[in-house]
Amino acid sequence: METIQMALVRAKRIHYPELTITVIHAREKDKPKGRDLIDWKLVTDMPVRSD
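Above: the chain sequence. Below: its structure as tokens.
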């Protein structure tokens, strides 16, 4: 999990605030027989808790 703070590009005189996002890369450790490995990249601006 990694948290990134981004400054958004302004468009047509509109100034957007900075945005903090969290990126989670979830991947299966072992490939199950008969199917592909699950490999997800999740991006959110919501708070994330990892227990």
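The beta strands are 2-6, 19-27, 39-44.
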